[in-house]
Amino acid sequence: MARRKSTVQIGVTGLGKREELADGVFINTHYRGCTPGAIYTEEGIVLVDAPLIPQQAMDWREQIEEEFPGQPFLYMINTDHHRGHALGNQYFLPVTVVAHERAHKEMSGYTENFKDRVRNSFKREPDIQAQFGDIIIVPPDITFTNRAKIIRGSREIDLIFVGGHTPATSLVWLPEEEICFVGDILWVDQHPYMAQGNTLEWLAALELIRDLGAKVLVPGHGPVCEPDATHRVAEYIVFMRGRVRDYYREGKTKNEAKSGLVSEMVEWFPVPPERKAKIESQIKSGINRVYREIQREEEEAATAAETGDDDDNDGDDD
Fold this sequence. Notes:
By secondary structure, the chain is an alpha/beta fold. It has 2 domains: 19-125 and 132-225, Ribonuclease Z/Hydroxyacylglutathione hydrolase-like (Metallo-beta-lactamase, Chain A, 4-Layer Sandwich), CATH 3.60.15; 239-309. The chain has 9 helices and 12 strands. It starts with 18 loop residues before the first strand and ends with a helix.
């Protein structure tokens, strides 16, 4: 393996030292937007997610090229279609992008309006905003539906669709190394972003992660952890579902549920004072999504009960 010694790079935008989780498997937790990975194979490098901020994406590329000089980039696997995971694809070309088929649908629909929203999100950070002058969307070249496998050299990389966080969320599982990149299914000491979520899928995904036998999990954001970290997120989701169901059964509206539950949910994870308003808005988006799920579940249950009653009555008539 052509390798150079890991070095430290610290910069004003959060550039930092890469961390080696197993032989030839690197991550960097210092970037905003996502925790990217780089996996060495004898045929080249497989990447997992791309840093959002251009300077950080270019730094990550330089760090990988420094670690593995002369090795080509084979694949960029996006665990989701969100900008924090996929917008930086352009800085790793030429590379073949791989993601779930729904990610292709979403990313192919990104318009100039989407690019403007990205730029505007950094209006309070003009130095970073200026880096987004030329945004090029690079959607997946290869998609999968449920599962896929990449084998390069002696390295096996499994792609597993789980949904939950979004309709495109997928895991990247290294069975030999017992390392799983879990994307935004797992948030450690942070409120999960649930605005596009499906909570039943999400809970199933957390259970699947626990059953994989991984020793190390790499969340989409934050530090690496062990499978036990999935329990707190599951408890959060179960609690929100239960409380939203309480509000629904009491005849409360979606807006009443949001107003009443934010103060309960915000206590689950630490929230920096400067991010309180943003996190509360994020929680409301999650409650909004869960309310629609609970409403649908309750309506389906009521319909099933009515159908059951009709069947019983028919039996009595006989």
